[in-house]
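Section 5: illustrative case.
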């Protein structure tokens, strides 16, 4: 059976990255996906915006929706303080072991827990099963039509507190119109728009930050 693109990305990281060096894992994936095979990692340009917001949030508990190969999990976890932790939700059983391996090569396996399953099923369990109180930072990068319903779930399960920071990828393309409708012109959110470009391409894209005001 032919290897998948995601498996080939892992092969490249495993062969070229320096063990325990998160930056070299990110550089390796960015190089592979810009020169060999495009893949839907947040990438180096939007990655700088992600870095900026994670540093601003300095989260103790962070959540990511849509692990994929683990690129943004590495990007986020490398910036976390010693006591902090990232939960990343992924439902595709083929991607979970690949992401776990890439996170391990980056030396960040103690900072990241991949929760296998659908976000809509796991979010309701975060408090009871995973001992989460509230989330300081959430990165949304899964199916675009799920950003809005899953944000509403986070609200309904009391997982957001005054100042919780949501950051959404792909506001430009593929776009997440329902999410924008939910957070903009909503007194419970303070939004900021970050124009950028699609990972590894010249096409325009953007990210949206939405701070929950309680
Ligand atoms: O579609 C994009 N991302 C989706 C990510 C999906 C990942 O997240 C996982 N996932 C999805 N829904 C859920 C879920 N819950 C919902 C389902 O139950 N629960 C748990 N995990 C979930 C998938 O298994 C994948 O691992 C995208 C496209 C382009 C793009 C741009 C230009 C182009 F031309 C083409 C494509 C650029 C980007 O940056 C993009 O992020
Ligand atoms: Mg994305």
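Designed sequence:
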């Amino acid at each position: 059976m032919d290897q998948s693109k995601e498996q080939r990305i892992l092969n490249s990281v495993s062969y070229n990255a320096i063990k325990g060096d998160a930056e070299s894992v990110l550089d390796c994936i960015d190089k592979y996906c810009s020169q060999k095979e495009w893949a839907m990692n947040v990438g180096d340009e939007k990655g700088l915006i992600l870095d900026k917001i994670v540093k601003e949030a300095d989260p103790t508990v962070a959540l990511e929706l849509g692990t994929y190969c683990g690129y943004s999990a590495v990007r986020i976890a490398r910036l976390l303080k010693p006591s902090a932790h990232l939960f990343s939700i992924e439902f595709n059983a083929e991607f979970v072991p690949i992401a776990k391996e890439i996170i391990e090569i980056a030396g960040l396996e103690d900072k990241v827990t991949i929760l296998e399953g659908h976000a809509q099923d796991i979010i309701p369990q975060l408090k009871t099963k995973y001992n989460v109180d509230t989330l300081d930072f959430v990165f949304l990068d899964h199916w675009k039509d799920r950003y809005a319903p899953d944000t509403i779930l986070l609200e309904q399960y009391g997982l957001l507190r005054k100042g919780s920071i949501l950051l959404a990828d792909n506001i430009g393309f593929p776009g997440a119109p329902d999410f924008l409708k939910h957070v903009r012109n909503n007194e419970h959110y303070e939004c900021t728009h970050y124009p950028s470009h699609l990972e590894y391409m010249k096409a325009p894209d953007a990210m949206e930050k939405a701070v929950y005001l309680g």
